[in-house]
Specification:
496 residues, alpha+beta, Rossmann fold, D-amino Acid Aminotransferase, Chain A, domain 1, globular
């Protein structure tokens, strides 16, 4: 492949293109009218507008994207994450058009796109599963029987779900009927599929995921874990690699389970197997994401492997150039998702213009972004501004480096998650490693940042007052020196 189109936008499009250019591959960008002046558009060798700002009229226009590829002689499509990245129909049409889809086979996408189908596929391997139903369930009486059998609390989940949609926690028998109907209704509205199933609710879970790579020659390996337990609204905000709680033995065991999940669906390419882990370090298969993850940089930092380049090589039919034994964890990496969100207002989006935008730089600091100063965050897409990633020899040093990077990251004009990230890095629970997916609920309240901002404002005002007073004093002395004769000037200087 000598020319690849990136069917995405923003930071991930730019990040993919950088690796492609290092490989000597020509890049093609697509963009909506809202992204006409975006950095990823300027960075690409060629760029084509595919429609108006709404994603269903631009970035999700399958036929238009394929048409662009055929017109420009594109040989491969990289979907990034989100949008069409896990759309089996898109992958199928791309392949039918004679273009290489840089991702897994459609069968793997379809199997892992359904949580019920995924559970069935991995059931043939010795992989820990959360107790619950094996198939879809609609009958409330049957649901009650299952719930009583596995015990409350339970979790009702949409089979085709994600991002917390179609998910309901049920604490007791009285809530079951109402919560089940809500989950089914929300699943239908969000995914067009009302299928739900029931699992035992793991009360204090950590979210641990394993990065896998698989080529077309039967080689499957894992690149260790990422801990993604700090979340809001069931969506990740902070990720790190490696996890602070995994022993080498547990890491190897989970890695083998992840590889088995990939084998269960004949996976090819880069993918992520997600697990829930309870307070006793028991882990359970959750799902598999058949694409590049937002948080993939932390894995790249601790392994030295460029996952995008590996995706392209695998799509070309090349064998993996390394084995499981070749891979080692070196150092520690942490990622903070910098969102245009207001943490003091329930993390609601705060769309506006980046009046000031300056990223931190330095050894061990990586910023994947797709914006520049003066740009406006569009209302049509995910409000993520950037991924701030730091790397250091150990976790303690990585925490320190992240705090320094946050302090040197300047964003004005919109609310963002930088201060929240600093709060996380400085919290005793996160520092100790003793935290779970309820971190935000257990420890974070808006007044934490509001009080912090007020304190910083007072300190800044005090410093400004002192600087002004010193400046005024020096100005008075200079005036006196300027208006004095030589002898008195010398005497004043000696006194000063």
């Amino acid at each position: 492949m000598q020319k690849i189109l990136v069917a995405n936008r923003g930071e991930i499009a730019l990040r993919i293109m950088r690796s492609l250019k290092e490989m000597g591959i020509q890049t093609v960008a697509i963009f909506s009218e809202a992204d006409r002046n975006a950095p990823h558009v300027r960075f690409a060798d060629e760029a084509v507008c595919v429609g108006p700002p709404p994603s269903n009229q631009s970035y999700l226009k399958v036929d238009k994207i394929i048409e662009v590829c055929l017109e420009l002689g594109v040989e491969g499509i990289h979907p990034g994450y989100g949008f069409l990245s896990e759309n089996a129909d898109f992958a199928r049409k791309v392949t039918a058009a004679g273009i290489t889809f840089i991702g897994p086979p459609t069968g793997a996408i379809e199997t892992m796109g359904s949580k019920l189908a995924a559970k069935e596929a991995v059931s043939h391997y010795d992989i820990p599963m959360v107790p619950g139903t094996e198939g879809a369930i609609e009958d409330e009486k049957e649901a009650m029987q299952v719930a009583l059998q596995i015990g409350f609390p339970i979790l009702i989940k949409a089979s085709a779900g994600g991002g917390g949609k179609g998910m309901r926690i049920v604490e007791n028998e009285e809530e079951l009927a109402e919560q089940m109907q809500r989950a089914i209704s929300e699943a239908k509205a969000a995914f067009g599929d009302g299928s739900v199933f029931i699992e035992k609710y793991v009360g204090s879970p950590r979210h641990i995921e394993i990065q896998v790579l698989a080529d077309t020659h039967g080689n499957v390996l894992h690149l260790f874990e990422r801990d993604c337990s700090v979340q809001r609204r069931h969506q990740k905000v902070v990720e790190e690699a490696p996890s602070a709680v995994l022993s080498p033995e547990l890491r190897a065991k989970m890695g083998k389970s992840a590889v088995d999940v990939a084998r269960a669906c004949a996976y090819v390419g880069a993918g992520t197997v997600e697990f829930l882990m309870d307070e006793n370090l028991n882990y359970y298969f959750l799902e598999m994401n058949t694409r590049l993850q937002v948080e993939h940089p932390v894995t790249e930092m601790i392994t030295g492997i460029d996952l995008v380049k590996e995706q392209v090589k695998i799509a070309r039919g090349e064998r993996l150039s390394f084995t499981q034994d070749d891979l080692q964890i070196k150092g520690h990496a942490i990622e903070l998702r910098v969102y245009a969100e207001d943490p003091t207002n329930n993390f609601l989006p705060d769309i506006g213009t980046l009046e000031k935008y300056q990223v931190p730089v330095g050894e061990g600091i990586r910023v994947d972004d797709g914006f520049e100063e003066g740009m406006t965050i569009p209302i049509y897409y995910d409000p993520m501004i950037a991924k701030l990633v730091v790397y250091a020899p150990n976790r303690k040093a990585a925490l320190k480096k992240m705090i320094e990077a946050i302090d040197n990251y300047q964003i004005e004009g919109i609310a963002n998650t930088l201060d929240f990230g600093k709060f996380v890095m400085q919290h005793p629970a996160f520092i100790s490693g003793d935290f779970d997916t309820h971190f935000v609920k257990n420890y974070f309240t808006p007044d934490v940042l509001q009080n912090h901002s007020e304190t910083e404002a007072k300190i800044a005002a005090f410093i400004a007052t002192q600087v002004f007073a010193e400046s005024k004093r020096q100005h008075t002395i200079d005036d006196f020196l300027h208006n004095s004769n030589g002898n008195s000037k010398w005497k004043v200087r000696r006194r000063v």
